[in-house]
Amino acid sequence: MPPARPRQPSLSQLRAFVAVAEHLHFRDAATAIGMSQPALSSAVAALEESLGIQLLERTTRKVLLSPAGERLAARACTVLDAVSDFMEEADAARAPFTGVLRLGVIPTVAPYLLPTVLRLVQDAYPALDLQVHEEQTSSLLDGLTHGRLDLLLLAVPLGAPGVAEIPLFDEDFVLVTPCDHWLAGRGDIPREALRELDLLLLDEGHCLRDQALDICREAGRAEGAAMTTSAAGLSTLVQLVGGGLGVTLLPRTALRVETGRSDRLATGDFAEPAPSRRVALAMRSGAARQGEFEEFAAALRIELARLPVRIVEK
Fold this sequence. Notes:
Blueprint: H1 11-23, H2 26-33, H3 37-51, E1 56-58, E2 63-65, H4 67-94, E3 99-105, H5 110-124, E4 128-134, H6 137-145, E5 151-156, E6 163-178, E7 200-202, H7 207-218, E8 228-231, H8 234-242, E9 248-251, H9 255-259, E10 265-268, E11 276-284, H10 290-304, E12 310-311
Parallel strand pairs: 3-4, 3-5, 7-8
Antiparallel strand pairs: 1-2, 5-11, 6-9, 6-10, 6-11, 6-12
Helix pairs in contact: 1-2, 1-3, 1-4, 2-3, 5-10
């Protein structure tokens, strides 16, 4: 019959043992952890009894660690450190806007909104450890569903089960053209103009590509009409427009960054109602931090109002 497994030690017993191992003196150890000397001695003795191991060698003059005590003292320190970390994390979880927040952002939002997001976090939530992950929508949703990410900043609607959206703003799409294009500078472009234009799009997988295709379908563009997919990012796409290869659609928040690099580009606005997209935060339905995320969204709307967008209240 195998021997009975030792009883699990208490944290109080481990603290007493670690204190004695550090000070090699019962009175000094008791003082260090605010325990009476008899109580400390009793706790160490109870630990030895429960483990069935002599941890200390006691003489009238000094206290020494036994070979087993030397090995287990390091383990006991590790356990106590882990418990301390656990309690610190629990304290952080109780306090809003502390600890880690893993934020996922799509590439057609990140360069234009992150400066606002980062400034808000630094100014209003300095105890928040913000970790940013830039990925395409499908990857972000997978990360949110499986717990790799906590919150997403992206274009909606998503139509994903188990995901709740917190709307932030709507923004118009703008037509970006070469300077000499017949639509350059227009402020009343009809959507129907998209039927015949040489339209440049992002690669498959980008939600902005799908949104542009939806706008074209609504404008009556034939399903099989030629479209050149030429770029993995908006910066390259805009450079291709500047080179005279076609036109493209940009969200208004991207204009200043992307068109400011070239003097060969022009823009045109669509007639009202202009095609637009909605940007929102997304979280798991019933997320433990839902209240925190909604408060974050409210603060973010105030900051985003400085941008060329239409704020959407929940």
